Periplasmic binding protein-like II
Amino acid sequence: MDDKLNLGFIHSNSIVINSVVLTYSDNDDLFKRVNEEFNKYSLEKQLNITLNVITYTTSNTTNFEKEYGATIDQLLYKRSKKFDVFFYDVVYTKRYSNYLLDLYSWFPREHIELYSKGVALKTCTSNGKWIGLMGKNVFVPYWNLYILLENQEVENSFSINSLLNGNAIYLKYWYYPHGDAYKKSVLVGKNEGVSGSTIGGYNIGINKYIDYKHKLAAIEVLKYFTSKEFQKNFTIAEKYFTGISSLYDDEEVCSAIACDLAKQFQPIARPLLTEDYDDYSKEFRGYIFKFLYGNETASKVLSDIVDMTKVYEIVLNTDTTKIGYIFFIISCGLTILMPLSLLFLLHPRAVRTFRFLSTDFWVITIIGCILPLGSILAGSIDLRSKFNNTLPSNVIAGSKAHLQELTLRERLMFYHNSKVIIGLKVPSKSKSNSKVSISAMLYIKYKMFTKFLLHKNL
């Protein structure tokens, strides 16, 4: 990263809480104001806590999109204590859940309950833990409607300037205060009465690796930012939606924002099915931009987007492609050649070359090389109903917790709620059963057999 902006004033004899914010917006003033507000509040209440916010934006960071998630990843993965509090995008809740403090054990119940009836249940919790609270909720995209009182020509080229200048007729964009030029309405969903809106914004979480003293101080910071009083004042002043649903019944709040609109949303949390949301989103937008600003046709772009959701298999049917048939022929050829290579063990001149392994181990090695080739004919079977008596319980369970006992190769073969073919994880149609390909099953049997022989020889 390049330059960084340090915000906050350090007071003597106080605990310094360092916080980091990564934001797509170039507006640093917002975080500067809330930083100053907390330090003022800390002085008034004599908390002896000084907040120091470091802000990274698109203007002071190179390759921001790639570094957005990776920066916090690296800090948390290394158990760094450089930052105590993280403002992070709601899409990373699951991604950071193992590194952030479970707030449920540290906050009063009534404070957690402020968020328990709203969208925070979708964006602040993971695996039963409250790892963050919503500090600034950009919330959802919407349709903007601008009614033209007179006939006007609309330019074909459209950009963010059209939004800011009030020149757009219809627009789908994130919720921002735009004055009276636009009438905001719910983004329509598939069914009538159901919106297609998506949750956006920031959560605030605490680094679980910091010491106890800094944890207590960080809790005070979060209590302030996520309190009902602060959220109310912030919502009125900045005209952003809040994560506290009860505030949408407050008259003062509703005089500043469209509470009726907020109550109509059935927001969708991102990501739902993928953990590499950044890469998926970037690739998806890249295809769209090729159509909007490049020379790609709509049909080609749509085909590429559909490709992203597909799971491909090698089949012998040549109606669509001959690749499967070619692979089948190659696999059959190798399957024949590999056993024939064992004939070298019978040649007098080759015995000395290959004698560092016994003959039975050479046979097992060749079998181990042949088995993966059989994946081209692999199907899927239900482990629980077919192999309950032949596989260890940790394999049958198929859970991540038990996979730690397996080797790297074996862990690649199994994944919770997934169907696996040669170590490639693909979504399973059924979430109730753990499945594995026949070739993977044979590989496990081969591994168990070789371990048995090694133990026997030792």
